[in-house]
């Protein structure tokens, strides 16, 4: 894991000090709200429906146990005892008082964390595959690359006032658990024919009002060129991106309006200017960073306890089957701790749960914890012999839901329950879907199915990428939900298509149920997932299930 | 004929707490919508909003929200204002706690 050095520490403390003074001046009336708002946003402070919200960065989703314990402490001392994991590897606190936020930021700085660049038109928290450094299918650990980018982008003087927010994601695996094609710049670590490790660079992806799948700008970028090349892209965007219309300001629009070839040409020109300015110190620095991320010493231990538990305890087996992923080391597994207990708020973690997870990570998992963009918590390095003990502890704290990747493992943004921009609620829809399919006891039979829900067109809940996406809207003063079908967050990212008219709040869960039951009828066998069946059959039979009345009329 | 004016309350967020607040008839800010001033006159609403906007040391982002008369005072007509007045629907937090303990719903 990367540890702050004195420079980082000093920089962050200094920022907290500045913000403390700004808050004091706001409360005293010396600053107006118009003057203060950009300052608070620079420090991750939003004003939501019921309270301020503080968004804290979790770079590439990595936490150590002390950091997680500190997040728990902060939630208890200055909030209501819980925090919310987001799709961009942040934690959001929903109820702080403005006057307390500087203290919260100081408490974060105590464990090497902060809220800088978690808002505003700047390069946001750099995200990465939550299985980084552990996944069996990985070309290389993406975290050193993500950390290099984080250090380069933090407080980068040229990129504090971009036309719009700017998001980078890095993956080291073909499976792409970082959704690189839906980011402003997606970076995939790849090997060329000569066996050298480098980067595939994707630009112009993004969700929101105009969802766009990113395009490959460079198939293979040598490692040493990473920073000057990414700097060239952001710099081209900074001069070309539209500032006249915030809905057209993201690089996805810049790329569409100018064409990828034009962008490529401009980036190459800028890159040629920038390349000589990078002396290679960045590469030495990369090597130092990479040394901080070396794999833990994996043990070799008997697996008897694991096999016995798996053979004799069906509940444990079911959890292992859904929530444990293949690890690169013999005898190890990657644990997904579901933050989606049926009926719970997706992605909320109580202070107690955070502490339980911190303890487990310390005792059994080399002190390494990740937050996934799917709003779950990951223990990346666990010896399988320890799984029964981990499972027992998780179970005692309501954290052992065996649903990773299943229908109740829903991404949902805060929606109208908290968010000032929302047009409808998201969370209760997610809760009701999860509860309904739990009642029906068909969740495991359904298998892999991703539902993603957003409370407005900003698409924070990634609904465009859900196999089933749900978008909450306000239709003449009532909540209305539009369904998209066929989206996919996998390596060949697909934006889902709108299925038809939306559904009222009390009709959305029954509609999802009809859709899923139709899939169960339509699939070849239980190895065919929802998205595979959808691709094979097209949208017609699914639309018919959603709109049975219309289907009847059409048939008549 | 002029279009009918939908009654309004002046609402904002409290500067320090972030909590939803409403303007009462006596000019004070209150936390409970039923204690707010239901303004039936368009010009009066505009005046009160303008007055609210020059109290940045209390109220952030003041605006006029549609409301109607209820048995105990103004009630929201749109679901967004209903959540603002009550708190989130997924947790028992925010204003709904104050409603459960009426003594906590005091003036700001
Ligand atoms: C204060 C709460 C939030 C506000 C005001 C907010 C605002 C926005 C806005 C305005 C956009 C559209 C940007 C554009 O296309 O230019 C957006 C997109 C997005 N937000 Fe949020 N958001 C909030 C909370 C969240 C949360 C809780 C999550 C995660 C659960 C999240 C993750 C995202 C993602 C993934 C996108 C779309 C990705 C993209 O287009 O690049 N946001 N948000
Ligand atoms: S999608 Fe809309 S409602 Fe949901 S968090 Fe984003 S801005 Fe808020």
Account of the 3D structure:
The complex is a heterodimer of chains A (556) and B (108). Chain A has 556 residues and is α+β, with helices and mostly antiparallel strands. In chain A, 39% of the residues lie in helices and 17% in strands. Chain A has 19 helices and 21 strands. Chain A has helices spanning 6-28, 33-41, 65-78, 101-109, 143-153, 226-240, 251-258, 260-274, 281-292, 304-312, 314-323, 351-364, 387-396, 427-440, 443-446, 505-522, 530-537, 540-546, 548-555; strands spanning 45-47, 52-57, 62-63, 82-85, 90-93, 127-128, 168-171, 185-191, 197-203, 215-222, 324-326, 332-337, 348-350, 369-371, 377-383, 411-412, 451-454, 468-475, 478-485, 497-498, 503-504. In chain A, the strands form four sheets. In chain A, strands 16, 17, 18, 19, 20 and 21 form a six-stranded mixed β-sheet that branches. Chain A has a five-stranded antiparallel β-sheet with strand order 1-2-5-4-13. Chain A has a five-stranded antiparallel β-sheet with strand order 3-14-15-12-11. In chain A, helix 5 crosses helix 9 (281-292). The longest helix of chain A is centred in the N-terminal third of the chain and has 23 residues, at 6-28. Chain B is α+β, with helices and mostly antiparallel strands and 108 residues long. In chain B, a hairpin with a 5-residue loop joins strand 1 and strand 2 (20-23). Mean pLDDT of chain B is 90; it is low at 103-108. Classes of the chains: A alpha+beta (556), B alpha+beta (108). The complex binds protoporphyrin IX containing FE and iron/sulfur cluster (SF4). Iron/sulfur cluster binds next to loops of chain A.
Cα shape of chain B: globular
- Rg of chain B: 14 Å
Strand order within the widest beta sheet of chain B: 3-2-1-4-5
- List the ions, cofactors and other small molecules found in this model: protoporphyrin IX containing FE, iron/sulfur cluster
Q: Total strand count of chain A, please?
A: 21
Q: How confident is the prediction overall: mean pLDDT of chain A?
A: 96
């Amino acid at each position: 894991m990367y540890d702050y050095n004195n420079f980082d520490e000093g920089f962050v403390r200094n920022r907290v000090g500045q913000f403390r003074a700004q808050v004091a001046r706001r409360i005293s009336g010396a600053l107006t709200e118009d003057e203060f708002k950009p300052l608070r946003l620079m420090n991750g402070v939003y004003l939501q429906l019921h309270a301020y919200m503080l968004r804290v960065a979790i770079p590439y989703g990595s936490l150590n146990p002390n950091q997680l314990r500190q997040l728990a402490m902060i939630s208890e001392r200055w909030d209501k005892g819980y925090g919310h994991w987001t799709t961009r590897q942040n934690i959001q606190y929903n109820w702080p008082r403005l006057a307390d936020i500087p203290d919260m930021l100081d408490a974060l700085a105590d464990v090497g964390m902060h809220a800088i660049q978690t808002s505003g038109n700047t390069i946001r928290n750099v995200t990465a595959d939550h299985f980084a450094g552990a996944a069996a299918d990985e070309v290389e650990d993406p975290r050193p690359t993500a950390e290099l980018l984080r250090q380069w982008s933090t407080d980068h003087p040229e990129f504090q006032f971009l036309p719009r927010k700017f998001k980078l994601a890095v993956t080291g695996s073909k499976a792409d658990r970082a959704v690189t094609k839906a980011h402003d710049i997606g970076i995939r670590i790849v090997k060329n024919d000569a066996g050298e490790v480098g980067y595939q660079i994707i630009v112009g992806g993004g969700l929101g009002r105009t969802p766009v799948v990113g395009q490959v700008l460079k198939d293979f970028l040598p490692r040493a060129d990473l920073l000057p090349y990414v700097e060239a892209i952001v710099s081209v965007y900074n001069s070309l991106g539209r500032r006249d219309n915030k809905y057209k300001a993201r690089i996805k629009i810049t790329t569409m309006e100018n064409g990828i070839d034009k962008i490529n040409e401009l980036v190459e020109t800028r890159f040629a200017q920038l390349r000589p300015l990078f002396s290679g110190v960045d590469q030495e620095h990369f090597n130092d960073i990479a040394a901080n991320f070396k794999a833990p010493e994996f043990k070799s231990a008997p697996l008897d306890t694991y096999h016995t538990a798996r053979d004799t305890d069906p509940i444990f087996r079911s959890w292992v089957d859904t929530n444990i992923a293949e690890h690169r080391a013999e005898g190890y597994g990657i644990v997904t701790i579901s933050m989606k207990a049926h009926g719970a708020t997706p992605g909320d973690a109580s202070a107690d749960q955070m502490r339980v997870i911190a303890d487990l990570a310390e005792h059994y998992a080399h002190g390494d914890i990740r937050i996934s963009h799917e709003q779950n918590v990951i223990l990346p390095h666990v010896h399988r012999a320890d799984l029964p003990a981990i499972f027992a502890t998780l179970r005692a704290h309501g954290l052992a839901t065996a649903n990773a990747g299943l229908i109740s493992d829903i991404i949902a943004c805060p929606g109208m329950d908290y968010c000032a921009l929302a047009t409808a609620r998201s969370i209760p829809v997610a809760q009701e879907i999860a509860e309904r399919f739990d009642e029906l006891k068909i969740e495991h039979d359904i298998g892999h199915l991703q539902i993603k829900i957003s409370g407005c067109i900003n698409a924070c809940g990634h609904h465009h990428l859900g196999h089933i996406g749900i978008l909450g809207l306000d239709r003449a003063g009532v909540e209305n939900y539009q369904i998209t079908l066929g989206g996919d967050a996998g390596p060949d990212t697909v934006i889902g298509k709108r299925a038809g008219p939306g559904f009222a709040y009390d009709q959305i869960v029954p509609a999802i149920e009809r859709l899923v039951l139709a899939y169960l009828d339509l699939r070849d066998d239980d190895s065919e997932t929802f998205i595979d069946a959808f691709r094979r059959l097209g949208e017609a039979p699914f639309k018919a299930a959603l709109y049975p009345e219309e289907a009847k009329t059409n048939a008549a | 004929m002029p279009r009918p004016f939908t009654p309004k309350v002046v609402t904002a967020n409290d500067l320090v707490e972030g909590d939803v607040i409403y303007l009462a008839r006596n000019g004070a800010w209150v936390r409970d919508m039923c204690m707010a001033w239901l303004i039936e006159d368009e010009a009066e609403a505009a005046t009160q909003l303008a007055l609210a906007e020059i109290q940045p040391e209390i109220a952030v982002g003041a605006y006029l929200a549609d409301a109607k008369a209820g048995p105990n005072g103004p009630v929201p007509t749109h679901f967004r204002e209903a959540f603002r007045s009550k708190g989130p629907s997924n947790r028992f937090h925010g204003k709904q706690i104050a409603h459960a303990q009426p003594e906590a719903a005091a003036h700001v």
